[in-house]
Amino acid sequence: MNIDNSTRLDAHFNSQQPFYDGIYAGESVEIPDTAFDVKDGERIVGCMDEGTADRVHIATPGSFILDGEEKAARMLQGKGVGTVTSHPGCAAAKAAMKMSGKYTNITQKDIDEFAATFSRRLAEKIGAKHEDIPLHRPSNFHIARGAVYDGSRGAIISDPNKGGMIVGNNFVIPPPMFRINRKHLGPERAISAMGLSASIATSDHSFAERISKENPFVVFALGHPTEKGLSSDALEKELQDIQFAVDGTRATLIEYFGSDIIKIVKLNAPQYTSRHNK
Questions:
Q1: Is 84 helix (H, G, I), strand (E, B) or coil?
Q2: Quick one: which of 57, 111, 52 has its CA closest to 83?
Q3: Cα–Cα distance between 53 and 143 in angstroms, integer?
Q4: Which of 30, 20, 41 is nearest to 165 (CA)?
Q5: CA angle 274, 119, 140 (to 5 degrees)
Q6: What is the pLDDT of residues 35-80, one digit of tens each?
Q7: Residue 160 has pLDDT above 90, yes or no
Q8: Contact indicator for 146, 20 with CB cutoff of 8 Å
Q9: Per-residue pLDDT tens for 189-203?
Q10: DSSP string covering 171-188, please?
Q11: Is 239 helix (H, G, I), strand (E, B) or coil?
Q12: H or E stretch including 106?
């Protein structure tokens, strides 16, 4: 990584420090119920990338691009989705192209077109609209020091008008984070996506060695208010116990990254009204 990018990464890392200092100190964390206030038919599907996850309710790698159109459409039917998004520079779209075995000499333009086409066709299948949205992060590196493992029906936490977090006694808009919607992905695939998030954050494409014992990668286990299998306690157990494929073997997040590098913080979504419970 060149010196300019390293300096920019330092700036992003340091700007997030006050927020994470509160988390590391064990201050209480809550999410206001307004973060979940979305009407049926208005939910937004998008990527887990921290550059887009601040604007979507159901976040998975590449807006379900690794599942294929038919399976993704079945998973999203009846979930009140109004928009399916795509974004430029999607790593999951590149992975899907490679997995298909149909493409060679893949360019960034090919990847962007593939991502947009998939999301557009998925939107058509479920009667939603498609939107290609810009990244809210630098295009050449990632800036997330944490992730939300979301067992709720999805919250827009980074929206200053609706979302935010209450850390201790202070209302804050959290810094960009990855988000994985566990409720819609299931445990094994969600843990795999979380492993990918932590791998990115600790790589040379992101904060690398800046993520450390003193400044671990934070995983917010956001539990569902009524479904026991998706409570914050259940999500914490999954994050500790379920293995994912990595480097030709299988390991839990703690086994692979170390207990000093991964910090799990439990919090629960507030009770939803009936229209918000899907």
A1: strand
A2: 57
A3: 13
A4: 30
A5: 110
A6: 877 777 889 999 999 999 888 889 999 999 999 999 999 999 988 9
A7: no
A8: yes
A9: 999 999 999 999 999
A10: EE-PPP-EEEEHHHH-HH
A11: helix
A12: none
Quote the CA–CA distance of 100 and 11 in Å, as a whole number: 38
The Cα 259–Cα 240 span in angstroms is 10
Confidence at residue 3, expressed as pLDDT on a 0 to 100 scale: 65
157 contact partners, CB below 8 Å, separation of at least 6: 31, 35, 54, 148, 163, 164, 165, 174, 177
pLDDT in tens, 96-124: 999 998 988 899 999 999 999 999 999 99
pLDDT at 274: 43
Amino acid, single-letter form, for residue 142: H
In the numeric block, which tokens belong to residue 162?
């609706």
- Give CA–CA dist 174/17, Å, rounded: 11
Whether 218 and 20 have beta carbons less than 8 Å apart is answered as: yes
pTM equals: 0.92
Q: Identify which of 150, 159, 177 has the alpha carbon closest to the alpha carbon of residue 20.
A: 177
115 burial type by CB count under 10 A (0-12 exposed, 13-18 middle, 19+ buried): buried
Q: Count the neighbouring beta carbons within 10 Å of the beta carbon of residue 39.
A: 10
Looking only at Cα atoms, what is the longest distance across the chain?
53
For strand 146-150 and strand 178-181, is the pairing parallel, antiparallel, or unpaired? parallel
Q: Specify the length of the chain in residues.
A: 278
How far is residue 231 from each of residues 34, 222, 268, measured CA to CA in Å?
20, 8, 7
Encoded tokens for 182: 């566990």
Place of tokens 């029906």: 153
Considering Cα of 43, then 45, then 46, then 50, what sign does the dihedral take? positive
Provide the residue type at 79 as one letter. K
Report how far residue 276's alpha carbon sits from residue 278's, in angstroms, rounded to the nearest whole number: 6
Contact 52, 133 (CB under 8 A): yes
